[in-house]
Amino acid sequence: MATDSIWTCRAGFEPDLAEELAGGRVIAPALCRGREKPGTLPTFGRQGLPIFAETRARVEQCLPRVRELAGDGSFALHVWVPDSDAGNALTGLADRIGRELRTGLGDAAARERRADRLAPGEPLVQIAVTAEDQAFIGASAVSEVASTWPGGRARMKLPPGAPSRATAKLLEALTWVGHGPGPGEVCVDLGAAPGGWTFALLARRARVIAVDRAAMAPAIAKDRRLRHVRGNAFEYRPDEPADWLLCDMVERPAQVAKLLARWGREGMARLVLSNLKLPMKKRVAAVAEACGIVQGGGWKGVRTRQLYHDRDEITLFAHA
After folding, report:
1. Which of 277, 281, 282, 300 is catalytic?
2. CA proximity to 28, closest of 165, 134, 169
3. Cα separation of 23 and 33, whole Å?
4. What CA–CA distance (Å, rounded) separates 184 from 161?
5. 5-152, what's its fold?
6. 166-319 maps to which CATH number?
7. Is 258 a catalytic residue?
8. DSSP-based three-state secondary structure for 150
9. What is the pLDDT of residues 150-203, one digit of tens each?
10. What is the DSSP string of 194-247?
11. Distance from C-alpha of 200 to C-alpha of 129, rounded to nearest angstrom
12. Structural domain spans, the chain
């Protein structure tokens, strides 16, 4: 029988997350309960944990269960709160529980690793502190979790000189994808100005074709690996296929999806990473429509996720 899970999301997107889950329901700001649908991770779910136990938010209640779930090998332990006003007020309690659990684990604490350094089958043990006297405990193989960041909050440090906060969005997106453009690879950045994404690509020593009628930030405008095409991103076609197509434009998701689909049909790139801005209502349906359009263009392995640095948008990745 399927096990219920606790899922956290960006505040304000609880109904969308609940809609994606089987038997999903909103139980608190930024928090839903339900079951994953087979073969998918919810787009709007930052992090989830299968409910092993619901208990009081007390170390003595949590410690025996953490010992059991950690097993005899390497493990990671995350104690997190939902990303809401009410949840963030519990941060001090969650931090204290984490410290005291590690003390209580004794010698076993030496086996704790960072989640992103565990082998695929090793467990990520999680405790979601959801109220002053309530916590949910669970564990999954690290290869099965939505995020290796506590509560899915992948905080990216904005590099010095970055033209906009969009740089952090791309850095997180590449971490989520698991790889990114390498030195010399050709990237087309549609809607690039002022250059938040282009900045991150140049830092990876990629070659960038930035397409935007507006000016690029002076700090990167003269970089020899950058070619700025002052034109319409919807009309641009590269002289030869690119390695990466990147897109972060304020347009309706279906319109952007049609643009990505054309690039796929015409074989103009081998990988695509794009933000899709979302409507105020029927956001799950809008994501499904956009994914269908992108897949219709021949792109494979389409994945979507509302990342920590995304606001009223999601990130989409696919390959040719």
Report:
1. 277
2. 134
3. 8
4. 22
5. THUMP fold (3.30.2300)
6. 3.40.50.150
7. no
8. helix
9. 999 999 999 999 999 999 999 999 999 999 999 999 999 999 999 999 999 999
10. T-HHHHHHHHTT-EEEEE-SSPPPHHHHT-TTEEEE-S-TTT---SS-EEEEEE
11. 35
12. 5-152, 166-319
